[in-house]
Amino acid sequence: MSAPGSVVARATAGLAPREARGSRARRPGAVLWTWLRKLLPLAGIAVLLALWQLVAASGIYTEDQLPGPLVVLRAGRETWASGALLGHVGASLGRFGASYLAAVAIAIPLGLLFGLRPALWRAVDPVVQLVRPISPVAWFPLAVLWLGIGNLPAIAIIFLAAFYPALLATVSAVRRVDPVYVRVARNFGTRDRQLVLKIIVPAAFPQIAMGLRLAIGAAWVYLVAGEMLGARSGLGFLIIDARNFLRTDLILLAMALVGALGFVIDRTVAWLERKLDARWGVVREELS
Amino acid sequence: MSATSIRLDRVTRRYSDRAGNVRDAVKDVSLEVRAGEFVCLLGPSGCGKTTLLNFVAGFDRPTVGRVLVGEREVQGPDPSRICMFQSYALYPWRTVLGNVEYGLEIQGLARGARRAIASDYLRLVGLDGYAGHHPSQLSGGMQQRVALARALAVDPQSLLMDEPFGALDSMTRMHLQEEIGRIALTRAKTILFVTHDVEEAVYLADRIVVMAADPGRIQRIVPVPLRRPRCRTNDGFLAVRSEVLRELGLVHHAPHPSTLQETAT
């Protein structure tokens, strides 16, 4: 090895890494279109609001049955000013965060274990497949019976909704780790514990992260339902409470907030995922 | 570490396929590779080249027979025998430098020491400017060079290469062959190299083990008495190449003019 890599070095000196290649020149029309494309999602929301306003103003329903967006916005300002709204949102997010994190904290280690021990998974898999199709909603009566009313049943319902997707994603991610990674690791003398920490977990990570994102979306859907089981705060409680007082504007306000917060959570997680992917050197095929 | 000899002693690998038929991937194969020698295993797919390599790597064990490296029987994979794969098998979540450091990290070297060694080997393969990149940002040839640096960094006694350049374009492949040829020149590593590219084998090997399939066996061992660095176009090279092609049954008598015409129409 006297002349280290000189030939090879010369051969690749002109080669830029992939990221640096392939920037195309754009026509002005194309630039305009790119900007318009960015505005399209906003246009969709604008149309939804307009339709809502249109139906509300049409007189098909009374204002008590279907208040328009502006009425709901006013209700929002009022509840915000009283401080109640922030309290409900905070209660929901706290509850959701706690049970989601608990679900993930249990699902990932279990998933690793099941993924690494195929025999164990063969025994557990049918149980999971049997219990998983039972909607968290079906657990309501038992949840109340076992956990009483209040905070706990809501937390349990969200936990259930998040647990299965996180578990299954982890198991399948571990099972799909390229065997050649393990081979190389063994070749360099890697022992079991290091194999899990240095190879299995990072190799499975991108797929686990994708599962966690699915789990967060699935769990958020059940937040409202869970909070209808006797909780005294949160957006689900706000809906039940508003129904008892026939405040349709507050019902719609709570619904809109659930939607908006769910959207923000999903985007935040997607953003985090992209950040981590870059760190992990993962290249995902983008669907445009 | 200095190179060691490798000896396959009447190895057979038997397995039963899905239909339940018992088959021999390799049957009764004996081969001796001297310390510092470069041996290519060449043959059609299914002739058991990779099976033999996996025995030496310790990824698989023969059903019958023994595999000796130096004086010791192979019990499993070991950092003194590093395998390289066609798919590079780099860790995508690690940087280029992190990949080269991997083996040293497992051996428990301190961060500073392993970083220094890894950087040296990256420079050796001409990629010192890419230490912070991720493998996915590199071309195939560059990735395989990172894998080579990763293998060399732990200073193995032997390199076991399983069609390492099979996925590369021919120009890149030739550059990497030159690189490996330079390592062979030092005689510091015993190299077992699986390929189905005749020219590659003639360019690299001290001896070419021509194998045949069903069951996998050694058909003939062709010595390559050419000085390094080798020239791909001189008469000696072409003579060995024809000899190997003939052994593989790929050279027939010079085509008769009439048959040429037949195929042309």
Shape of chain B: globular
Helix-strand makeup class of chain B: alpha/beta
The CATH homologous superfamily of the largest domain in chain A is termed MetI-like
Number of helices of chain B: 8
Q: State the shape of chain A.
A: flat
Strand order of the largest sheet of chain B: 6-7-8-3-9-10
Number of DSSP strand runs of chain A:
0
Mean pLDDT of chain A: 86
> Percent of residues of chain A in helical segments?
over 70%
Most strands sheet of chain B: 6 strands, mixed
Q: Pairing-aware structural class of the strands and helices of chain A?
A: mainly alpha
End-to-end CA span of chain B: 61 Å
Low-confidence stretches of chain B: none
Strands of chain B, total number: 10
The CATH class assignment of the largest domain in chain A is Mainly Alpha
Overview of the molecule:
The complex is a heterodimer of chains A (288) and B (265). Chain A has 288 residues and is mainly alpha-helical. Chain A has two domains: 1-60; 69-287, MetI-like fold, CATH 1.10.3720. Chain A has helices spanning 6-12, 28-57, 69-82, 84-116, 118-131, 140-147, 151-175, 179-187, 192-227, 235-244, 248-280. The relative contact order of chain A is 0.10. Chain B has 265 residues and is α/β, with parallel strands linked by helices. Chain B is 35% helix and 25% strand. Chain B is built from eight helices and ten strands. In chain B, the strands form two sheets. In chain B, strands 6-7-8-3-9-10 form a six-stranded mixed β-sheet, with helices on both faces. A four-stranded antiparallel β-sheet of chain B has the order 2-1-4-5. In chain B, a hairpin with a 5-residue loop joins β1 and β2 (22-33). The longest helix of chain B has 17 residues, at 170-186. Classes of the chains: A mainly alpha (288), B alpha/beta (265). The A-B interface holds A 1-12, 15, 17-19, 178, 180-181, 183-190, 194, 198-199, 202-203, 205, 279-283 and B 57, 59, 76-79, 81-83, 85, 87, 89, 91-95, 102-103, 105-107, 123-127, 130, 133-139, 141-142, 145, 154, 171-172, 175-176, 178-179, 182-183, 186, 188.
